[in-house]
Amino acid sequence: MDMGNQHPSIIRLQEIQKEVKSIEQQVIGFSGLSDDKNYKKLERILTKQLFEIDSVDTEGKGDIQQARKRAAQETERLLKELEQNANHPHRIEIQNIFKEAQALVKEKIVPFYSGGNCVTDEFEEGLQDIILRLTHVKTGGKISLRKARYHTLTKICAVQEIIEDCMKKQPSLPLSEDAHPSVAKINSVMCEVNKARGTLIALLMGVDSTETCRHLSCVLSGLIADLDALDVCGHTEIRNYRREVVEDINKLLKYLDLEEEADTTYAFDLGQNHSILKIEKVLQRMREIKNELLQPQSPPELYLSSKTELQGLIGQLDEVSLEKNPCIREARRRAVIEVQTLITYVDLKEALEKRKLFACEEHPSHKAVWNVLGNLSEIQGEVLSFDGNRSDKNYIRLEELLTKQLLALDAVDPQGEEKCKAARKQAVKLAQNILGYLDLKSDEWEY
């Protein structure tokens, strides 16, 4: 319809809807909390648009009333999504874990403020545990959660890198201060750089309200300028020493751009990451092999060729670059478990087939273990095919079946037979691994 022939109220509603649409992606991707400035800004814009919609005069006309209703519903939908993003249980979980990291930094990173580099094993282990827990937070593919998890991980991993780099590589003084006047200045700058590490860590973790990224960037850039102004011509060792300190400063400057870089590069969207695509390619081939193996009458000769290819897939996963990203590491870990579980299934199938060919007298307890292994093979086939969550009836059924097999193994009396003891121990481990794999498949984790 030609806009010139439309009712002014309809035209106004379309203008409002256009304004609401312009911030839709900001709302969908909002990864902060309800007390963030950007949250309040978006909320204010949407609320204002609701008032604008409400003020449009319908003149009692049905088509205008319907148009106003649709515009209000769309705006209310975005307001609701904004609120849900900020208050999502997993978003709160991310924030609570981050608060633990903040508390750890406040308590343990004090030596950096005085220019030291004494970090306890307890701090490093605590930080690694926090990174692992953040990696396991489920996003359900939701953009806002992926961004929140990525931003939080990026900050904490940056702190970990800064500390590790400081611990393993400290520039060493090549000459005494008497050798050249510039050495004293470089030493002085190096002390300032060490203190800046503590300030940077505090900034990244949000535990220093007295400093800003912009100011710290100016300070570090000023230190580089001071070093560049030094005359060290003809003194190779001093020039190398200065270069080391400049490199350290540039590394710290790089961390100040983390937040902006994460948003502009969409690095949080690992679905397009090269390493993730490699992992997905491996998993796709693994699934094709799995489907062949789970056919009702898959031939035994298929086992050897499948196992050889699956072992090759493990090799491909080993070559995947982790890019210092714990989410990629977790994705690879899960993929390795997927492939290894299928290899274990093939191994067990092969063992059961061989046992049929070489039937012989055996100890009753040993036979009982083999009976359980036969049951586990059937259950494992079902677990490999399972595609659901922990509330599914089939999950509960499979969990109960595996628990029954563990109880059956517990009831087996080896009667002193060492071979039977070893077989039972292996069967228990297999049942527990299948249970663990069932949990892994059903926990709804997404990178």
UniProtKB/TrEMBL annotation:
Domain BAG: start-end pairs: 9-86, 182-260, 275-350, 365-442
Key words, A-Z: Chaperone, Repeat
Record's GO cellular component terms: cytosol; membrane; nucleus
Gene Ontology biological process: negative regulation of protein ubiquitination; protein stabilization; regulation of inclusion body assembly
Annotated GO MF terms: adenyl-nucleotide exchange factor activity; protein-folding chaperone binding; ubiquitin protein ligase binding
Gene3D superfamilies: BAG domain
Organism domain of life: Eukaryota
Purpose of the protein: Co-chaperone for HSP/HSP70 proteins. It functions as a nucleotide-exchange factor promoting the release of ADP from HSP70, thereby activating HSP70-mediated protein refolding. Has an essential role in maintaining proteostasis at junctional membrane complexes (JMC), where it may function as a scaffold between the HSPA8 chaperone and JMC proteins enabling correct, HSPA8-dependent JMC protein folding. Inhibits both auto-ubiquitination of PRKN and ubiquitination of target proteins by PRKN.
Subunit structure of this chain's protein: Binds to the ATPase domain of HSP/HSP70 chaperones. Binds PRKN. Interacts with HSPA8 and JPH2.
Protein's name in the database: BAG family molecular chaperone regulator 5
Organism: Marmota monax (Woodchuck)
